């Protein structure tokens, strides 16, 4: 009970992750001038701990070390201690992760970094145990030895800090190369992916396995040009195996963070908004190509999950759900046969357990992660019923067990609303909503966009990063502007409401003013009026989320095509030139960037539709565009008597009184068409005289 008596400075923060540490006996500071001044005044090194709310090992290190009175006393005596939520401060996370990786060859969270009082890193790692184990020193040993080095070998510490800081500054600002952009990079990337593809279970590499939706999207773009079925197979096998595996929540929809094994069975159970946003788009694109019933079901269930569990009442989407509940990883999601059988008929239970691989032995610490272990035809045959009857029994069993699971203690949800992640989900739900006819998804995307614009904008129109408990905080980063503005462009293409395009254009202009490197090309992560940090980074590498420069390039290519701004296209090309060599060699680190390169190299296609938005004939033309996978096609619409500020729509009207579609490709326009059949010919590359 004693730990709840004490509170530290984190009690005044909004981040759920920081608030979780507000009762630690550690004298934590949030990042800021107060902490840096205290370190300089006392001439103490800084211990910087960076993590996030859904991070399992962050919670472990807190229980073992930060809640331990003796460890906390040592930390308070020897260091100024700073706690950071990486989701609120991606700038700090990126800088100090680069430093930890340079020092140790690996990174992750919790991140533990030791800094000089002027915030320069000199030593670091990730999780440290309370006693020496796994070949690691104990956390207390690390604290003492770092403090000793700072006191007794100050020259060495300062030298290491200077060398690391210089390295960070060199790597932070890639200059554009003079080489031309060409298609050979795309071919090299596909060849590299083939070499690392697991042709038995899907995915790339061995284990752990991450979903990598950006890489899969890139593969789908390349299949669209080549029609090479081996290329499509890489995406299809991966998407199918993930959808059937334990990484997908078979009862509640939505994807967990990653699989700890090579077969997609045992996930790390947290669920992240950004993963599900990106996977929604990837499964939608794959469905547009294949019309797979499995993909369609995954899309519907994942949309349901987002609307049910990740949507704030006032609009906006929450960030993450923990892996743990009641102190146990995965407890909310796993089952024993007894738990299943007490709620179902014997036949329902038998069919359910057979289909989802449930056994007495279990597959996760004596319990069962649900995964599709055999085909429905096989299960039906085994129980002597038709496939239709087996499917009905499964559907009823899932409905019953989902209701049972809803009564369990749910994993903690981090209810921060982040502009960047909301932009990704707005993009996904706008696209899925309009293609799949999910009006509820489209409405949720619009509500979230209104929320960010109304509650997360500053008086001068600039964005904030984070919103929680009525407080919007932190200057928006490059990725906040680019992801959110890209989501607004997707909303325009779904609704044709010019408000969204206007706000996207306004935010893009702020993005240039705040982040653009006019001399070197590309965009910095932090704005011109951001606090000065040890380095001002440009981020190009796509990790779990597209990099800021990837998002910016995608936004500029799409918005530029819609509003007729060729300067945006040229700026996107400068971004891509900076990393041309790396993209082909390391495609899984540049999945979204490779999609951007494909967009830049392929003929751009603009479809302008004129007609009453509600009329069936207009909807038929729009539907023909939307049901196809056309990643490089932009879509605009105006009513016959409406004015439009879009060059695409200027001077265009009905044709002989009928709604019409005008298709332009690579700056050349075809004659307008008024029937879906004629439009198909143009979309698929034909011409109409």
Strand arrangement, major sheet: 1-3-2-4-5
Class by alpha and beta content: alpha+beta
Tally of helical runs: 26
CATH class of one domain: Alpha Beta
Q: How many β-strand stretches?
A: 19
**Percent of residues in helices:** 40-55%
Architecture (CATH level 2) name of one domain: 3-Layer(aba) Sandwich
Instruction: Evaluate the radius of gyration.
Output: 26 Å
Q: Proportion of β residues? A: 5-15%
Question: What's the end-to-end separation, in Å?
Answer: 81 Å
Name the CATH homologous superfamily of one domain.
Answer: Glutaredoxin
Low-confidence stretches: none
> Averaging pLDDT over every residue, what do you get?
93
CATH fold assignment of one domain: Glutaredoxin
Largest sheet: 5 strands, mixed
Shape: globular
Description:
This protein is of the alpha+beta class. Among the domains are: 2-172, Glutaredoxin (3-Layer(aba) Sandwich), CATH 3.40.30.10; 333-407, Arc Repressor Mutant, subunit A (Orthogonal Bundle), CATH 1.10.10; 603-689, Glutaredoxin. It is 49% helix and 10% strand. A five-stranded mixed beta sheet has the order 1-3-2-4-5, with helices on both faces. The protein has a four-stranded mixed beta sheet with strand order 17-16-18-19, with helices on both faces. A hairpin with a 2-residue loop joins strand 10 and strand 11. Helix 11 (273-290) runs antiparallel to helix 12 (293-309). The protein is globular. It starts with 15 loop residues before the first helix and ends in a 6-residue tail after the last helix. 50% of the residues are buried. The mean pLDDT is 93.
């Amino acid at each position: 009970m004693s730990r709840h008596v004490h509170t530290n400075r984190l009690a005044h923060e909004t981040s759920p992750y920081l608030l979780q540490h507000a009762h630690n006996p550690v004298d934590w500071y949030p990042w800021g001038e107060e902490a840096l001044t205290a370190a300089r005044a006392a001439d103490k090194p800084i211990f910087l701990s960076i993590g996030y709310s859904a991070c399992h090992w962050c919670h472990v290190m807190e229980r073992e070390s930060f809640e331990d009175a003796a460890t906390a006393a040592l930390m308070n005596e020897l260091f100024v201690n700073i706690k950071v939520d990486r989701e609120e401060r991606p700038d700090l996370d990126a800088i100090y992760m680069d430093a930890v990786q340079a020092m140790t060859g690996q990174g992750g969270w919790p991140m533990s970094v030791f800094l000089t009082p002027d915030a320069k890193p000199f030593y670091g790692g990730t999780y440290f145990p309370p006693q020496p184990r796994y070949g690691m020193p104990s956390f207390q040993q690390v604290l003492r030895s770092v403090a000793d080095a700072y006191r007794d070998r100050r020259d060495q510490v300062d030298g290491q800090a200077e060398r690391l800081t210089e390295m960070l500054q060199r790597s932070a600002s890639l200059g554009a190369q003079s080489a031309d952009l060409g298609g050979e990079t795309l071919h090299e990337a596909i060849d590299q992916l083939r070499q690392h593809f697991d042709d038995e279970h899907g995915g790339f590499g061995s284990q752990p396995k991450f979903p990598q939706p950006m890489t899969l999207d890139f593969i789908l773009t390349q299949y669209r040009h080549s029609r090479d079925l081996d290329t499509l197979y890489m995406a299809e096998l991966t998407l199918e195996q993930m959808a059937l595996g334990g990484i997908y929540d078979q009862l509640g929809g939505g994807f967990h963070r990653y699989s700890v094994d090579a077969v997609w069975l045992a996930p790390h159970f947290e669920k992240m908004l950004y993963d599900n946003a990106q996977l929604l788009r990837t499964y939608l694109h794959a469905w547009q190509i294949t019309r797979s019933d499995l993909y369609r079901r995954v899309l519907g269930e994942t949309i349901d999950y987002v609307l049910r569990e990740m949507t704030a009442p006032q609009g906006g989407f929450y960030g993450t759900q923990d892996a743990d509940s009641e102190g146990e990883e995965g407890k909310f999601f796993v089952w024993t046969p007894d738990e299943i059988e007490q709620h179902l008929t014997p036949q329902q239970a038998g069919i359910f357990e057979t289909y989802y691989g449930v056994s007495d032995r279990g597959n996760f610490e004596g319990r069962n992660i649900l995964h599709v272990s055999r085909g429905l035809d096989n299960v039906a045959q085994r129980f002597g019923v038709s496939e239709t009857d087996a499917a009905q029994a499964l559907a009823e069993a899932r409905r019953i067990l989902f209701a049972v699971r809803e009564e369990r203690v749910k994993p903690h949800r981090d209810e921060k609303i982040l502009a960047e992640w909301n932009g990704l989900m707005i993009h996904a739900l706008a696209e899925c909503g309009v293609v799949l006819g999910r009006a509820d998804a489209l409405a949720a995307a619009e509500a979230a966009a209104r929320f960010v614009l109304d509650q997360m904008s500053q008086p001068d129109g600039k964005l904030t990063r984070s919103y929680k408990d009525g407080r919007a905080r932190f200057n928006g980063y490059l990725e906040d502007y680019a992801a959110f503005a890209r989501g607004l462009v997707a909303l325009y293409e779904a609704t044709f409401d010019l408000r969204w395009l206007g706000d996207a254009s306004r935010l893009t202009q702020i993005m240039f003013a705040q982040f653009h490197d006019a001399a070197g090309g590309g965009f910095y992560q932090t704005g011109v009026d951001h606090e000065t940090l040890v380095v001002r980074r440009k981020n190009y590498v796509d990790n779990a989320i597209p990099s800021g420069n990837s998002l910016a390039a995608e936004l500029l290519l799409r918005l530029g095509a819609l509003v007729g701004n060729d300067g945006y296209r040229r700026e996107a090309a400068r971004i891509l030139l900076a990393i041309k060599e790396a993209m082909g060699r390391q495609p899984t680190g540049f999945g979204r960037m490779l999609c951007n390169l494909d967009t830049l190299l392929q003929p751009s296609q603009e479809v302008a539709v004129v007609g009453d938005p509600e009329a069936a004939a207009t909807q038929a033309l729009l539907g023909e565009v939307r049901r196809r996978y056309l990643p490089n096609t932009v879509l605009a619409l105006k009513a016959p008597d409406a004015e439009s500020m879009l060059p695409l729509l200027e001077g265009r009207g009905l044709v002989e009184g009928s709604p019409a579609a005008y298709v332009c490709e690579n700056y050349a326009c075809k004659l307008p068409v008024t029937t879906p059949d004629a439009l198909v010919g143009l979309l698929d590359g034909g011409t109409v005289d």
